[in-house]
Amino acid sequence: GTKLEDELLRIQQILKAAEIDFVLYGSAKLVNTPLLVENVLSMCLKEAVTNVVKHSQATRCSVLIKQKPEEVLVQVQDDGIGFEGNSQQRGNGLAGMRERLEFVNGSVDIQTMDGTTLNIRVPNVIL
Ligand code: ATP
Ligand code: MG
Q1: If residue 123 lies in a helix (H) or strand (E), which one and from where to where?
Q2: Phi, psi (5° rounding) for residue 51?
């Protein structure tokens, strides 16, 4: 599948329009990853970057894609104000991300220090 690669092109355009510098580490060409998993990862990446643009006030956003035999890690990092610096609203984006990830036995953890880092993990095999 090429879905994650397609989404990466889109988020690069979105970040460029928002004047946020973008860096990619790793390759979005997934091997050994079921299409369903790739679809979920694409959706998560899109929501994470949309949040960077909407909420973070960052100047820089990086995406790391790390493929291991057993799982894929997608890390989205920004150098913005973080969750604490934000008057947090109750949206649906992160909840929807968690719901979809649960469906494929994946997870997301959020670190907020010097900006925000999302670690999105999904196993390559759906049990
Ligand atoms: P929706 O996703 O439904 O359009 P939303 O983006 O506000 O609305 P979530 O995506 O669930 O909702 O995010 C919840 C809140 O977390 C946001 O309103 C914002 O305050 C905070 N937030 C999310 N991502 C970031 C980020 N990268 N930097 C700073 N704050 C963030
Ligand atoms: Mg959102």
Answers
A1: strand 116-123
A2: -65, -40
Q: Residue of the nearest CA to atom 8 in ligand 1?
A: 91
CA 80 to chain centre: 15
Q: CB-based burial of residue 45 (10 Å sphere; 0-12 exposed, 13-18 middle, 19+ buried)?
A: buried
Q: What is the ipTM of this complex?
A: 0.99
Identify which of 20, 76, 81, 94 to mutate to test ligand 1's pocket (most ligand atoms within 8 A of the CB). Answer: 94
Helix H or strand E encompassing 112: strand 107-112
Counting beta carbons within 10 angstroms of the beta carbon of residue 106, is it exposed (0 to 12), middle (13 to 18) or buried (19 or more)? buried
pLDDT, residue 2, reads 60
